[in-house]
Amino acid sequence: MINETVWFHYDLTADVLYLRQADARHDPAVGEETVDGLLLLRRESDDRHIGLTIINWWARFGNGALPDSLIQIEAHMQPLAGRFAA
Questions:
Q1: What digits encode the pLDDT tens for the residues 37-70?
Q2: Could you tell me which residues come within 8 angstroms of residue 61 by beta carbon, excluding any fewer than 6 positions away?
Q3: H runs (alpha helix) in the chain
Q4: 40/53 Cα distance (integer angstroms)
Q5: Which residue spans within 1-86 are E strands per DSSP?
Q6: Comparing C-alpha atoms, which of 82, 71, 63 is closest to residue 10?
Q7: SS3 67
Q8: For residue 38, what pLDDT is reported?
Q9: What predicted TM-score, i.e. pTM, was given to this entire model?
């Protein structure tokens, strides 16, 4: 959890980052691919943006070797999560 507002899960094997607004983490959602290849999740009931799935997150946005702790991964995600939560 980042700043108690953004929940995340990182699938290390597949290099996929899942972001969800914490208050909508379990809400049914539909996804659509953005022009830059991200998957934007919208809540089914009101079409509000509630999540983002990034395939090849580290390959696309990381630098060097993958960090070996969740704290380091979270630090790399802070800027993205801040924009997402706004």
A1: 999 999 999 999 999 999 998 888 887 887 766 6
A2: 54, 76, 80
A3: 57-61, 70-85
A4: 7
A5: 6-11, 16-21, 29-33, 39-43, 49-55
A6: 71
A7: coil
A8: 92
A9: 0.78
The string of pLDDT tens digits covering residues 6-32 is: 888 889 889 999 999 999 999 999 999
Q: Count CB neighbours of 60 within 10 A.
A: 13
The residue type found at 50 is I
Placement of tokens 């914490």 in the chain: 22
The alpha carbon dihedral of 64, 70, 80, 45 has a sign of positive
Q: How many residues would you count in the chain?
A: 86
Phi/psi of residue 38, nearest 5 degrees: -95, 160
